[in-house]
Amino acid sequence: MLKKILIALLAVAMCLALVACTTTTPVEEPVDDAVEAPVEDGTEDVVEEEPVEEEPVEEPEAAIDTSEFVVIDHVVLGDPDANDNWRVVQDEANKYLESKINAHHELNWTGWTDYKSKYDMMVASGEELDLVDCASTWLDLWPHASKGAWYILDDLLPVYAPLTWAEISPDVWDCAKYKGQIVCIPEDCYPQAVNHGVFYRGDWAKEAGVYDIRSYADLEVYLQWIADNKAADGVVPYDTSSAGGLFSGYIYTETEHISTQAAGLYAESWENYWKLIDVYQTDAAKEYFALAKSWYEKGFWRTDALNYTGSSRDQMRAGLCGLDQHHVETYTGLVVDMEEKIPGSDLKMFQWWMGKTNNGVGEPVTHGAQTISVNSKNPERALMVYEMLRQDETFFHYIHYGIEGWQYVINEDGLRAEPEGYDSAVDGYWSNFWCGRPGKFLIPHVKDWPNKTAYTAEALSHLKLYPYGSFIFDKAPISAEVDAVNAVNTAHQAALYLGMAGDPEVALAAYIAERDAAGFQVLFDECQRQMDEYHDYMEGN
Asked: Which residue of 75, 215, 369, 426 could cross-link 184, Cys pair, CB 3.0 to 4.6 Å?
């Protein structure tokens, strides 16, 4: 089973790296009419035929009843534009949608401030939601599924989203199942690479003598050069409030350990994906915490970083920061933005797989996933709206790009551009629909990085396929321990990652002792038990 899923996901990844996913129409074989040869003596044989029972004629499928007008609510993450342009776009899009399926589509924004708490509360509240954007990596798709939050889609998909049902392979559908039932639609047809790493300025790296950063030792040389040469200009080498990404990056670049994304635990390696370890007890973790303390003392981030509320990305755009952390998809857009704002900045990326162990693992296909709330009053019509988002080019362009002539125009080369006089502060629009973007309908922008497709394909080629696509950690048996350990993590980890917890050996020992007292070993043992079961199942099917 594991091999089947990995092969299926590899096929998806390869397609997305090069072209958007497409739907094909099966070609029917021509039917030859049976013709009897004439009898040579000039007569025809007369054959007495036995009566043939007539098969019942199948009634044609009834058209879906859309006579009742409905409004479909759609929960998306983020903040809308300040001018409410999204409402104008939505009204225009809904004129089209109503003409097709007699429904309206209404965005329901969950703002970034304290988004996770608000999202979890809304999903669990019993509120009458319809479409709900979700993810297994950062929005708790499976824990919410375990509480019965999502509508079961198996019977609805072939009827109300037949094109989507047909274009997703059975093995990928398997990754969208909770206890054997489909609870979401994975975003499997959007071309992106989510290899994580850090972005740095190539112009400054060249002056520092480490133009091609491939290790944390190289990264330290670069950050030290900024501290020595740019501090007087108000530049902070890494202007951040969190260094959790640097910690996981160090583990990936220096070891073969990989994150399971289950209760914060890591596994020995991609090959031994089911064998869990306590990463905080490893030599690599101890090395990182000592390094973080050193970097803090060298001024690589603010002395009040734990209370900082700014953005390293915004500071980098302003020329006041030398480092940012995210994935390849973000990089391929930011590289253009940086060149426009700071010509010659030559943004580059140190991806974690570039470390000495070549340790890169992709994200699950449910990194973006569309669900329908179990409390939806119109799940069938909600699914029809999703089908329009994914399969209707005109409707998708409204939702993704806005109104042609206002938010964008198409030039003579078929590329997207801003209209004359466009001002993003006045005319800007976004919908933050990240759970079903069809690559086949994307329109390249005139300012797209020319190397984006090749860079994305190269990045994907270095990723091992995510081995936990069908693993769902059930924390119900140990929910008390999970909550207690999470509270300890919240209290200690941020300061540890930034080297701001005092002596790293003492601080790490105190953290581990408090975490263990909160029930970490119970949590670990239960997760290992579930992982063993998952391994046995996957290897046996």
From this structure: 369
